[in-house]
Fold:
Amino acid sequence: MDARVERMAEVLVNYSIAAQPGQWIVVMTTTLGEPIAAACQRAILQAGANPTVMLGSESLNTGFMRNAGDEQLQFVSPVTQLITEKADARILILAPSNTRAMMSVDPDKSALRSKAMEPMGEIGMRRTAEGTFRWSIAQYPTPAAAQDANMSLEDYEDFVYSACLVHEPDPVAAWSSLIKRQQGLIDWITPRNVVRITGPDTDLTVKIGGRTWINDEGTFNFPGGEIFTGPIEGATEGHIAFTFPAFLNGREVTGVRLTFKEGKVVEADADSGKDFLHAMLDMDEGARYLGEFAFGTNYGITRFTKNTLFDEKIGGTLHMALGRSYPDSGGQNMSALHWDMVFDLKEAEVTVDGETFSRNGEFVV
Structure:
């Protein structure tokens, strides 16, 4: 086994979720992710905690979504509810065999399923804010993910482990250095109120005064490398053309363009996937409002890979999530949706209360 798999598992268990003796920790992945699931299991046992490993597959998920009726789509498994309410931590490891497996699923079915799972998301976020539940999402390199990134599997493995800093002699110390730099940005932006983004086909104003900025330390998402907050719900104005394709539930939407008025998306267009975009926006009232506003700060992630877990962290980008807010950021938006979309700042400028914060993808404060 690649030694970096063991190191990544150790960082996930001992740093990201900080496993403690006696805790119940659930590890979820696909059958392709079994090597890192096994490594996590060993690390959890060594920490004195109690692991439960659950393996699934895209074919099972797709088969369910295609064949389930409305009542079945709205059924929430007692197992899922028990994990959400009682587990001390959860590690979700992305290990796809087919990243487009869900492309043929009816968007209305996806929306109905997401709406049914909304209470689980609310419970998870509430417990996270209370400090009673920790979670982390990570990527295990697979051929399908490498193909999306236009890389060989070997190159993609190097990319993933480098972005996660597990190639460093002391990964935790490396994360501490990034966290310190991010805290400097947070200290500067926290007392301020209005963010304006100007760039190609983009002029957007977002109000963030009084909200809490979160330092992404590589705990809840792995890799980390962003600062984010919950913008004021009714105050986003203007338009934005997202640079990169947006991905959700195995679906790709390209050329997303949104117009906001009093915080709400009033116009939405896309070069492809428009029907899916509108189905998600119509999921519920909160889906048309921003729940998250963030800047990517991980300059170790050097390229777009069609994987939001990495793409939203690219140094010199920003991303916004339509839908549900994270309560600990001060956001109040409620929705079954949480959809991150990424905007490249390389040809843009960000000002905060009229002062330049970022120019052409570089932070200048």
